[in-house]
Write a structure and sequence with these properties.
- The chain is α+β, with helices and mostly antiparallel strands and about 475 residues long.
- The protein has helices at about 50, 85-100, 115-130, 140-145, 185-205, 215-230, 255-280, 290-295, 300-305, 320-325; strands spanning about 5, 15, 20-25, 35-40, 45, 75-80, 80-85, 105-110, 135-140, 150-160, 165-170, 175-180, 235-245, 245-255, 285-290, 310-315, 340-345, 345, 355, 370-375, 375-380, 385-390, 400, 415-420, 420-425, 430-435, 435-440, 440-445, 450-455, 460-465.
- It has ten helices and 30 strands.
- The chain is globular and about 70 Å long.
- About 40% of the residues are buried.
Amino acid sequence: MTLLGLELSDAGILVAGGKPARLLEVDGQKQESPGVAIPEKKRLVVGNSAASKAHLFPLQVINRFWDQLNTEPLKQTYRHAQNHAEIACTHLSHIWENIKMHGDEMIIAVPDYYDREQLGLILGMAQELSIPVNGFVSLPIAASFNPCPDAMLLHLDIHLHRFEIVYLRQDEHLTRENSVAVQEINLEQLYRGWVESIAEEFVRTTRFDPLHQAATEQELYSRLPAALEIFKSHSSFIFEISHGRHRYHTPLLWDLLKQKSEAVYDEIRRSIEKMRDAHEKNSLLIALQLTHRIARLPGLKDKLSEIDHCEIMELEPGAGALGVLRIWDQLGDRHSGNGASFFTSRPWRQAEPKVSQTIPYETSGKMRPTHLLYRDVAYPLSEKPLFMGCDPYPAGKGIYVQAQSSSVSKKHCTVHRDADRIILTDTSNQGTFVNDQRVDGSTTLELGQIVRLGTSGETFRLIACMETHET
């Protein structure tokens, strides 16, 4: 049995699999497949292919089939699209064809707003496509990884058509206590406002209107995610666009786009404060757990940091997909008859056990680690610190961790030899784990232990290489 974890969001479905678990390519070479479809004469185009021409054929675009999953007939039916469930089934089939070589059973992390009738529809689709689905887990439950004692833990997510805030109660189990979904706050609305602002700036500075032509409108939407990523670290940049033989460029300022998002961000902040007030948690620290979908919105974390007694944690991309693989064995009765169980709680540790920095290292009868194994390459350990992180290092200086995750720092941790001991020192904010126990400062490593950086799924094994005379 090889498990796959699927994270369901109409903003982009992600799938994790493999050992160590990693995000897979689900749609061409992309790790996310958005819930967008365009009916054509002979087929239904879905995912990134549909999104790449959604504004070329705006009247044909269907993008609410995951958000409003049901079997009611569409107002305008097509040969390959009679209802939302049929379209979702086509999208799921497209993803399954890309990932089925990586696993033979699936667990699905679903948004909190899904009801049991919709889960039944998903299960029916899976059976029709011969996809063995073992069960469902609430996405906020699956994505959570860091216990926050004495804090109110809130999970924040945003999809194409709604924003979600979920209160997770922490005791022996992590349990979904309450949730609010706001349809007026969504990615589609934000993207439209930002594209309109960019177009208005082009008209003001060049007299060229990118929204006047479908091709340039599509280009604006296609390039918007890259522009938003730039705005996370820069307040302005030059945006250039081509039309025919002409090229137009204009300086874009974040302050310009900020005007379109300010009201939305304020409403998100108010939703958090209302949730806190509703549960009378005013005196507690608020721990905000942000999915990658909402964390990549520029300026939002700055707005949320204005909330009193607030701590912000950014989840890695696909935290739900990766999470269901980590926790599946911890769940109780995972099967209910011939159906699939739906879990809205999981075992939880209030305080993350920490690795003591005074662990004795007994050399008698034990072999000392000599190398750190990462992706089939053994890195020698010496008195010089070996850096580990997502910053490329010169040969011999460190290990470049090839993780597409914000949970790995540029200089995440170091490992070095001190007499007869191998010492790991954590220098990150996201945490370093040894055999799934978080390191507090520094710790002594032993042969065979597994080191994990944050929640990235990237692991290292302590090994010993023998001399030829020892074999």
